[in-house]
Prior knowledge:
There is one protein chain. Helix content is 26%, strand content 20%. The longest helix has 15 residues. Helix 1 packs across helix 3. About 7% of the residues have low confidence. Strands 1, 2, 3, 4, 7, 12, 14 and 16 form an 8-stranded antiparallel sheet that branches. The chain has a 4-stranded antiparallel sheet with strand order 5-13-8-11, with no helix packed on it. The chain is α+β, with helices and mostly antiparallel strands. The chain is built from 8 helices and 16 strands. 2-oxoglutaric acid (AKG) binds next to strand 4 and strand 13. Its cofactor is L-ascorbate; ATP; Fe cation. It is an enzyme of class 1 (oxidoreductase). Its EC number is 1.14.11.18.
Amino acid sequence: xxxxxxxxxxxxxxxxxxxxxxxxxxxxxxxxxxxxxxxxxxxxxxxxxxxxxxxxxxxxxxxxxxxxxxxxxxxxxxxxxxxxxxxxxxxxxxxxxxxxxxxxxxxxxxxxxxxxxxxxxxxxxxxxxxxxxxxxxxxxxxxxxxxxxxxxxxxxxxxxxxxxxxxxxxxxxxxxxxxxxxxxxxxxxxxxxxxxxxxxxxxxxxxxxxxxxxxxxxxxxxxxxxxxxxxxxxxxxxxxxxxxxxxxxxxxxxxxxxxxxxxxxxxxxxxxxxxxxxxxxxxxxxxxxxxxxxxxxxxxxxxxxxxxxxxxxxxxxxxxxxxxxxxxxxxxxx
Length: 334
Ligand SMILES: O=C(O)CCC(=O)C(=O)O
């Protein structure tokens, strides 16, 4: 037996025997068991992950799977994105974002003006990414069998215009989500081309998924910060960090409490990635009023009110329920 398998067996044995270890895991995670001795806090044994992979995610909060999405699919996603940029298709609910460094007066119907699109659940060709069986089989290891696609993005990190605005501040994705438990949420982030330190790959702080959700706000950057790019306050800058360099089609799965961000794009190309945040269909919405998430709630509600509401009022959880799509199993409480 490999060392990872031995360690995993020990961890599972510990969870099995120790009542305190079981209550340390969120109680709301109880219904998600795939088989009693197999469940650890962050992963399920579906027969897919090796002991090494499970242990790695349990300890680090992320897992890199090489060559998961085909070149052909990625090229189709890119073509669809370019069509959207050229305004050849109009999509209900799609959020189109521009880098803060691109002045409004410079409008050009081209990918050069667009740094990100969000909520592409109504774009069949892009949403196909969220339903790819080879992605979902990994997602199930973190969410369990009922899977909702909650939040979709295609990020087109532009060449930095000299103001460092192409950086994405270090943050925890859970800050944006009013549903729990956190351990049953996972992000799949697929590189649409080679990503490295030069074009601003993801940067992660391994192991920070075991912490708690921290306060977030706009960082005080001289050159400006993109809309809704909140940064985590008061994390340890000395914490070891890992630059996740990836090839086209490689996919990173990561926990929503993991502190991560991405660097400046110092090349002349647009660094593209496609991503989806999945949650278990058994997750529940929470009220974030009075919590650290209240500031982002306010911003999101202003956008949602413009997009969906007839009378200008919509509940945060409804704005998520409208966007969420079941991609496997049952939609129990989402
Ligand atoms: O793709 C990137 O540069 C960072 C994406 C990210 O962390 C996010 O949008 O939450």
